[in-house]
Amino acid sequence: MTDWLHTPPEGGWHTLLPPKALTLLDSDQVAGLSPETVERRREQVGANVLEETKGRSSWRILLDQFTNIMLLMLIAVAIISGIIALRADEVPKDAIAIFAIVILNGVLGYFQESRAEKALAALKQMASPIVRVVRGGKVVEVPSQELVPGDILLLEAGMQVAADGLLLESSNLQVRESALTGEAQAVSKQAAEALPAETSVGDRTNLVFQGTEVVYGRGKVLITQTGMQTELGRIAAMLQAVESEPTPLQVRMDQLGNTLVTGSLILVALVVFGGVLRAGWSAFEDLLEVSLSMAVAVVPEGLPAVITVTLAIGTQRMVRRNALIRRLPAVETLGSVTTICSDKTGTLTQNKMVVQAAQTASANYRITGDGYAPEGQFTDADQGAIAAPAQPELVQLLFCGLLCNDAILQKEQGEWVILGDPTEGALVVLAGKGGLNQQQLLHQFERVSEWAFSSERKRMSVAVRSPTTSQNLPDELTATPYWLLAKGSPELLLERCQSLQRQRDVVPLDDAIRQQILRQNESMAAQGLRVLGLACKPLQSAPDDHAEADIVEQEMVWLGLVGMMDAPRPEAKEAVRLCLQAGIRPMMITGDHQLTAQAIAADMGIAAPGADVLTGQALEAMAQTDLRQAVQQVQVYARVSPEHKLRIVQALQAEHQIVAMTGDGVNDAPALKQADIGIAMGITGTDVSKEASDMVLLDDNFATIVAAGEEGRVVYNNIRRFVKYILGSNIGEVLTIAASPILLPILDVPLTPLQILWMNLVTDGFPALALAVEPAEPDVMKRPPHDPKESIFARGLGAYMIRIGLVFSVISISLMYWAYFAAQDPNVPGDPERWKTMVFTTLCIAQMGHAIAVRSDTQMTYEMSPVSNPFVLAAVVITTVLQMMLIYVEPLRNFFGTHLLNPTELLICFGFSTLMFVWVEGEKLVRKLRSPRQ
C-alpha cells in the first residue's frame, strides 16, 4: 500500500494551497486522474466505504451469559443433584428445575445484550451514492465508493459530500456541517486559502468533509482522504473502539453474586466438616445433599427476572414522559448519574437562529419571541418600555434585512419554518415581528440587481425598485426610485458608509460615532450573539447589471446592528436548575464558538458569567492527567472535535463520575457510546447518534432528562427494596438448612432444592414484583446522587439483610426443633416427615409479613395507604393461596414432596410467621422513638 495516499502532509491538508496539494497527489485540476491511475489507487487504498470490525458473535453473547458465578454454581448443583437422583433410580426433578432456571436467566441476559450495533450502518448511509468527478478530462458519474485520493469532485447545492477534500474552486459555497461539527448554521467555504495547522475541524473553511451537505453554491474539490481515513471514518473507528462498560447495577449485582457464593461455599465447608466430624465419612452423601440445598438457597434465582421486569416497568413509565430507553440497564443507571455533558445545538438550544438584539442610532432594542414564529415585542433596553416598530430608523433596519435576503418564511402544518439560510431567516422573522409582510414587500419592491455574499466580501447587496405609489407604505420606504440594501460584517460594511440614519434624518458619520458603533458590535459579540450590520443607499436609477460591487457599495447610510443567537430552549433553564438541586452537575460541550458557548451557559445557569471556557485547541495540548484535573473545574467546552468529546467523557469517568452525554450529531456518537448513559435527540438527532445511544428523547426536551433521572432513582430505590426483601429470606433459608444436621438427631434437611426454587421464584418473586412499582418518595429529586462506587450493601442494606436473615432463621429453627419432635410422637396422627412442610410453610408465610412491612423504612404499616401500592396486598394473597395449594392439592403435594398439615399445625405455622412482621415493625417503632421528628 502506498503510504502517501493515506498519510496527510505534516500539519494537515488545510495547511496547503491547491497547487501543492495537486502535486502531492499527482493529480490535474482540469483533467483529473486517468482511469488506469484510479484503478491502481483503488487497489492500494480500497473502496471509499466505512469498514466494520467484527464484534461478538451471537453464540459468544449467549455463552457469556453462563459465566455468571451464581449460574455456574447452580449448574454444578444441578449436575450433582441429577447424578444423585439417577443413582437412586428417581426422576431428577431438582436438576430439571434448576437447569430450566439457568436457561431462562441466560436467555433473558442474551436478549438484553444481543442488540445488533447499527450505528456504523447509519454512518454508511450518510455517503452520497452517485457523484460527479473529472476523469481523463471528462465529467463522469460514478458510485461514491469508487472515489480515490486525487479524484476531482464536482459539488453543487443539494449534494452530500462523499469524501474529504481540499477546495480547488468555489462559488458562494455553503456547506451544512451540523451533523459533523455541531455548528447550527451553514459554513461558507472558499478555495485558494491555506490555514494554520492548529485550526479546528469546524474552522477549516478550505476543506469539505464526507457526510456533510452542500446547501448553496458550487465547488470543485481535490479528494484527499477516503473511507476510514476521512473525518467520518475516524468517528466510525472511535465508535467501534469504544467498549461498553458495565452499568452500576451490573457491577453491584456481580458484587452481590460473588459475596453470596463465597459466603455459601464457606458455610457449606463448615457444615460438611462439622458433619463428618460428627457422623464420619459414611454420612458424606447425606451431607452433600445438605450442601446442595444450601447452594440453591443462597442463590436468588428469581432476582434476574424481577430486575428485568422492574427495568421494563421503568421503561414504560419513561416512555410516557417522552424518554425512550433502548437498553434496559440504562433505566437504573439514570438514577445514578452525577454529570450530564450536554451538546448545545438542538439540545439546550432550539437549533433556530433568532434575533435577540438590535441597535440603531437612537435606541438599543431587545426582541422577544421564540423560534420562527413572527410574534414578539421590541423592548427599548435603555428605557425599559415597549418600543413601537413604526419608528423610522427601526423600520428602515427591518426593511433592509427583509429585502436583502433570499430566505422565505412560511407556515407548514401549523408550524412556522424557514426555507433557506437560518441567518437570513432570522432577519425575515424579525421583520415579521415588526409588522412587515414579506410577500407584500417582495411583490412591491422588485429586485433589479444583486451582489451575492462571499467569504471574501463578507457582505451581500441588492438593488430594488420602489413602487410608483405609496400603497400605505411609510414615506421613508418610497422616498427614492431605487434602493441599494446591504448586510454583512459590521466592520467591513461600516467602512463603506459615510452617513447615519437617525430618526428621519441622515447625518454624517464621524470617527467618534464609528468607534461607538464598533464598541456596540464588540459588546453584542461578547454576549455570544452573531452580529450583522445593515446599510442602505438611495438611488435615482437602477445600477448597471455589470457594475462592480466595490463601486456601487460606496457612500452608504448606516442603519444599525442586529444580534442573533441559536436561542436557548425556555424549559431547559428550569431543567438545569432541577439538575443542580438534585446534585447533578450539568456541563456544555459544543463545537460552537467559545463566546457563544459562554453566553448560553451563563444564561442557562450552567456556569457563572465569565467562567473559564476550555477550547478544543487548548484541550488538544493537554495530557489526559491534566484533563482529569480540568474537568473537575470547567463547565463549558467550545470548538471541540469528536475525539475531544470522547476524552472529556473518559476523564470524567476516570474521576469516578457516572456520565450522561446528550447529543444529536454524528460527531456525538463516540462519546454517546462511551458515556454511562448516551442520550440522543429523537426529532433532530441523526440515526447515528440514536443507534449509539442508550436513551432517545422523543421531544428533544432537556427537561425530559430530569424526568427520566427521577424515574431512574425510583427504580434503583425499588431494586434495593426488593433485594433486601429477597436476600433476607435467602439468608434465613441457608442458616436454617445449615442448622438442621447440627441440631437434629438426624442428618436431614427440611427443604428440598425444588421447594427452595419454589420459594425463590414464586414466594419471593410475586411480592418482589409488587415492591418494584412502589411510588416515588417525596424528596427523591432533592437528594444528591448516590456514590457511584457504593456497594449494593451500602447505607445499611447489608446489615439489614443479615439481621433479618438471622431473625428468619431463629423463627424457623425454633419451629423446626419443636415440630420435629412433635411429629415423632406416635400418639399424634400424621406423617412423621410433616415437620419439613411446617418449616417450608413458615418460611414462605413469614415472607408475606415481611413484604407488607418492608414497603417503607420509616412509616409504620398502618400509616401507609394500601391503595398507594395495591399490588403488594394482591401478591401476598395470591402467594399465600398458592402455598396452601402445595399442601392441600394432591398432585402438587406429590410433585413438591410436601405433607398434609392439620388445622392446628397450620395455625402454629401462621403464628410463628407473624413474628417476622412484628419484628420489622418493631424496628421501625424503635427508630421513630429515637428520632421523634423523623
TrEMBL record:
The keyword Cell cycle does not apply. The chain crosses the membrane at residues 66-88, 94-111, 260-284, 290-313, 722-744, 756-776, 797-818, 838-855, 867-888, 900-920. It is a multi-pass membrane protein. It comes from the Bacteria. SMART domains: Cation_ATPase_N. The keyword Disulfide bond does not apply. Residues 12-86 form the Cation-transporting P-type ATPase N-terminal domain. GO terms for molecular function: ATP binding; ATP hydrolysis activity; metal ion binding; P-type calcium transporter activity. Keywords: ATP-binding, Magnesium, Membrane, Metal-binding, Nucleotide-binding, Translocase, Transmembrane, Transmembrane helix. It is found in: Membrane. NCBIfam families: ATPase_P-type. This is Cation-translocating P-type ATPase. It comes from Leptolyngbya iicbica LK. The lineage of its organism: Bacteria, Bacillati, Cyanobacteriota, Cyanophyceae, Leptolyngbyales.
